Amino acid sequence: MESIEYLGFVATLFILASFVMDGNKLRVVNSVGALLWFVYGMFTDGYSIMFLNMCVILIHIVKLWKSSKKSITAQ
User: Fold this and answer.
1) Residue closest to 6 by CA, chosen among 57, 47, 48, 44
2) Would you state the pLDDT for residue 49?
């Protein structure tokens, strides 16, 4: 197995782990997995993988930003 495949498996583990989490922790762990999948896509010329995971990362960033903004105003 090539080294890049290990990266794919690690990315998969992060994504799977995020499914047993809630809230912001889910978003952070899933973002790490998506970032790893994005890097995997770069090395394998997987443009659809890169596009999907960049979208996932951006969605998580927006949701985390809104969540942190909401918790600041609640204080």
Assistant:
1) 44
2) 97
